[in-house]
Structure to design on (949 residues):
């Protein structure tokens, strides 16, 4: 096994030991660090259920070798709420609008919507559809998800 | 916010409990603040109890489980559609460092085969493989990559034989299985078969093989128990039928197989059959260690059954006024290598082959056959999807032949309560087909002006289409199916309710697969018991009887009915004790707002006080009204209840490129009664999207039995850019007698008529016959070239 290395995830330095260098960031997050919020629907970069932010860039963690992310700021769905007990505006909107059914695509969508609203606080319907077109969901037909995104955007705009 | 255990930091034994414990408290602690039971009961827009852990990434799905010192399992699968196995050398695999076990068919301890209707499918290939992807060997190792590489090192000596891939040839071909190539032939003869109409239309229709494509891949964790049994955490649709099959294959008592539902990432029929359940348990019992298995996406395409591809020959007879006289059809479903639920799927396809219309005479021949293609079984809509595409295509063809408005043609033939199906069964429940048609067709057609936004054009952001080159069409379709299992099957559900210290705990083995039963169970308990806090115990086989399958649009009715009955039984006990104590009649007492209250307003007591300590408990089984088998003419009262839906679709098409953009979908649905509006919208939107996918893009492509597109790169499902907003013109609420709260199941109807309506819209836009779904770009572009030449 290679030498241990460290990943900075959600503001915390995490030691990664006993890890094969061929392991993806998705695998290491889930199986080495116990952060199973990041999901494994396709593991081939097509569904975005494994979306994370790496140095602020929205990324499919299944396509990144974990060791190459050393030294970068990794944010997963677990790091997006305001602590354990508080939901982010986006998370709150997903719960409230009924955007969650089975929930397997949800963490990736939460990360992607945070990224979208950071870059574009007033997205049009087309902007939202285009930004989330890489996030596959099989349960919802996207209607309540789109409603949640517009609701979250409006809430964020109304906040000081 | 009540704190629950962090799923990933806890031993596995608590993870399933963590999901449900969170479910018990998160509803009160999430977006909704605690309000009185009256506004959080049945009919209220209550949020999912598992919504908060799901948006936080804390909900434990079946692929998120772990246990100390666990191993990873992997499956070696057949690369051939048909082959004899002359020998298998596991030596190189066993010699791989880190490998703990390599198991073959001979290692299956009990019955080698399993199956939902017929036990015809080997747990591991037994001398022969019958489809590409059939499991041949199992490996357990200390790392998933080691397990995968070891599986690749297994040497299987195959004698490859010619596969049987043509469903129509299957009945007369040499049997590929000891049980023969015809899984079921069902013939329906109804009314005067010599009758004929003044107008007839004919058509041959095809439906491709659709995949359920749930997001959460097959996965689970098995732990050996000291008593020789096994504990299995798995995503499934029906815990108890899994237990029955797993125990038989393991050769141990059912009580020694303890299955707990792990978080399920969607199902849609694909988890009704076993996938990795037996394999995981075999590896755990053999190694004495916990074993985890997670399918990759490509393996998932091989690991579960699909929607049956269909070929359907139809002839409709009508009089000059458009009244249907007779429907003749022959339906061939390709069941693939093993039976799965093909027998029930062909029954549905045949029984509902004429659509929700009054048909005095019908001759339907339904055939489900065995081939060396991938096994097919349950998928949302279950046989009714395929025939809906055919009968609605026929109705449009008939309307054109008669010079009639297609909606009017449907209206004058629409079934109603009191009418007869082609199986002779009289519909005794509600069945507002005409109202559903009127509501959907009567909704205003949105004015969608030509758009300069390339995202609105067929082909989308690829900029391949010019707005000026697109043509628009509108299509309409209506479809229906049964609710619950049919043909004499008693698919009961069990539930228990306990009220102690004013808090209700509901136990039911109903598989929550995303549909929102957990929300409904809490709503029902609140309504029946006047409490607010409702805890849902884990769904598991050891604590409660079967809930039946989360399929056939049945759980709201069946497990909802079981939960309602259990809560009512507890209520009766509580009120009897309080009435005796107060010296009044229990009829004068009610439970509300956490109180026992006398209707005369004279007395009240806290439910928490009345139920302090051990509390009250009841355990019930809920059965629907019995049904009958179909006779030799396919006649009989085989079904419990029916539900219908209609869709109207506006589509823009680029005829030269064969690209389609759906601009509007409007629907109406027969729902009985809505128990949770937001969840109902979610079912209708999600079900409609799966129908859109089947109509335009989703098909497992086979080449001599080999799957050519086992990935989300090549098997594409609708995205946010493919799905327009779905306008729900109306929920037609006519409460169903005998159904709890009058509610019908709502999951399947949206998937039945949506595909047919999309196809009709594309036909209307292009003028092409388009007798096959999915409609591929070449089906439009090349057919148009042929027409032009």
């Amino acid at each position: 096994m290679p030498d241990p290395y460290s990943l900075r995830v959600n503001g915390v330095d995490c030691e990664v030991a006993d890890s094969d260098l061929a392991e993806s960031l998705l695998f290491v997050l889930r199986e080495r660090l116990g952060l199973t919020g990041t999901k494994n629907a396709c593991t081939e970069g097509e569904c975005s259920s494994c979306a994370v932010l790496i140095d602020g860039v929205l990324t499919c963690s299944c396509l990144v070798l974990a060791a190459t992310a050393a030294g970068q700021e990794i944010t997963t769905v677990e790091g997006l709420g305001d602590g354990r007990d508080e939901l982010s505006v986006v998370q709150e909107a997903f719960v409230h609008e009924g955007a969650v059914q089975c929930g397997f695509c949800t963490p990736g969508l939460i990360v992607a919507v945070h990224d979208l609203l950071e870059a574009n606080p007033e997205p049009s319907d087309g902007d939202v559809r285009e930004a989330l077109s890489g996030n596959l969901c099989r349960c919802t037909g996207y209607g309540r998800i789109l409603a949640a995104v517009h609701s979250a955007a409006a809430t964020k705009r109304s906040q000081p | 916010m009540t704190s629950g255990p962090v799923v990933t930091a806890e031993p596995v034994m608590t993870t399933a409990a963590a999901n449900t414990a969170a479910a018990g408290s998160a509803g009160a602690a999430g977006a909704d603040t605690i309000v009185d039971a009256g506004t959080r009961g049945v009919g209220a827009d209550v949020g999912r109890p598992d919504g908060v852990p799901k948006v936080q990434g804390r909900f434990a799905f079946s692929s998120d489980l772990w246990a100390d010192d666990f191993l990873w399992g992997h499956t070696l699968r057949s690369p051939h559609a048909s082959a004899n196995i002359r020998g298998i050398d596991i030596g190189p695999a066993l010699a791989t460092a880190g490998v703990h076990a390599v198991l073959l068919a001979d290692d299956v301890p009990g019955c080698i085969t399993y199956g939902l209707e017929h036990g015809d499918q080997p747990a591991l290939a037994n001398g022969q493989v019958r489809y590409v992807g059939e499991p041949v060997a199992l490996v357990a190792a200390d790392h998933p990559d080691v397990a995968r590489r070891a599986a690749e090192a297994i040497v299987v000596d195959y004698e490859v034989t010619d596969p049987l891939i043509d469903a129509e040839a299957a009945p007369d071909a040499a049997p590929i299985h000891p049980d023969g190539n015809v899984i079921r032939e069902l013939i329906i003869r109804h009314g005067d078969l010599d009758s004929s109409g003044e107008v007839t239309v004919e058509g041959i229709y095809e439906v491709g093989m659709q995949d359920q494509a749930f997001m959460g891949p097959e996965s689970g964790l098995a732990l050996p128990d000291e008593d020789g049994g096994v504990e299995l955490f798995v995503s499934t649709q029906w815990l108890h039928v899994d237990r029955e099959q797993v125990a038989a294959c393991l050769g141990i008592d059912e009580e020694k197989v303890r299955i707990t539902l792990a978080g399920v990432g969607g199902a849609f029929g694909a988890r009704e059959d076993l996938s990795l359940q037996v394999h995981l348990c075999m590896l755990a019992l053999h190694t004495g260690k916990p074993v985890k298995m997670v399918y990759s996406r490509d393996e998932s395409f091989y690991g579960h059954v699909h929607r049956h591809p269909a070929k359907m020959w139809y002839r409709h007879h009508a009089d000059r006024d458009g009244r249907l006289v007779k429907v003749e059809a022959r339906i061939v479903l390709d069941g693939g290598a093993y039976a799965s639920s093909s027998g029930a799927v062909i029954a549905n396809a045949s029984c509902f082959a004429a659509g929700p219309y009054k048909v005095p005479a019908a001759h339907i021949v339904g055939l489900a056959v065995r081939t060396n293609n991938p096994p097919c079984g349950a998928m949302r809509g279950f046989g009714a999807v395929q025939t809906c595409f055919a009968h609605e295509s026929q109705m449009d063809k008939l309307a054109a032949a008669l010079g009639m408005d297609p909606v009017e043609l449907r209206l004058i033939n629409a079934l109603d309560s009191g009418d007869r199906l082609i199986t002779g069964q009289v519909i005794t429940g509600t069945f507002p087909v005409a109202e559903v048609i009127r509501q959907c067709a009567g909704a205003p057609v949105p004015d969608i002006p030509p758009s300069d936004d390339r995202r609105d054009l067929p082909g989308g952001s690829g900029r391949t289409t010019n707005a000026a080159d697109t043509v628009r069409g509108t299509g309409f379709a209506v479809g229906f199916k049964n609710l619950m299992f049919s043909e004499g099957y008693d698919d009961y559900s069990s539930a228990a309710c306990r009220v102690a210290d004013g808090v209700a705990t509901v136990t039911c083995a109903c598989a929550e697969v995303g549909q929102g039963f957990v929300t409904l169970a809490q709503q029902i308990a609140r309504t029946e018991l006047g409490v607010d806090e409702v805890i849902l115990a884990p769904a598991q086989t050891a604590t409660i009887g079967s809930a039946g399958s989360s399929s056939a649009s049945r759980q709201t009715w069946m497990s909802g009915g079981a939960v309602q009955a259990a809560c009512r039984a507890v209520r009766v006990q509580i009120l009897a004790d309080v009435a005796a104590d107060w010296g009044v009649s229990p009829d004068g007492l009610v439970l509300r707002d956490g109180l026992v209250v006398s209707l005369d307003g004279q007395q009240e007591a806290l439910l928490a006080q009345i139920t302090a300590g051990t509390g009250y408990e009841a355990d019930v089984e809920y059965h629907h009204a019995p049904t009958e088998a179909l006779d030799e003419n396919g006649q009989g009262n085989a079904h419990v209840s029916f539900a219908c839906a209609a869709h109207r679709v506006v589509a823009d098409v680029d005829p030269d490129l064969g690209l389609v953009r759906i601009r509007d979908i409007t629907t109406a649905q027969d729902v009985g009664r809505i128990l949770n509006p937001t969840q109902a919208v979610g079912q209708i939107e999600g079900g409609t999207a799966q129908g859109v996918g089947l109509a335009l893009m989703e098909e497992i492509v086979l080449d001599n039995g080999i799957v050519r597109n086992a990935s989300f790169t090549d098997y594409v499902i609708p995205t946010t850019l493919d799905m327009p907003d779905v306008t729900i013109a109306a929920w037609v609420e006519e409460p169903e007698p005998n159904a709890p709260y009058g509610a019908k199941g709502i999951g399947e109807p949206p998937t039945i008529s949506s595909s047919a309506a999309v196809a009709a819209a594309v036909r209307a836009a292009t003028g092409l016959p388009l007798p096959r779904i999915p409609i591929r770009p070449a089906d439009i572009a090349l057919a148009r070239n042929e027409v032009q030449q």
User: Anything to note?
Assistant: Chain B touches chain A through 69 residues (CB under 8 Å). Residues 71-162+217-264+271-303 of chain B form a domain with the Aldehyde Oxidoreductase; domain 3 fold (CATH 3.90.1170.50). Residues 1-18, 20-37 of chain B have pLDDT under 50 and may be disordered. The longest helix of chain B spans residues 555-582.
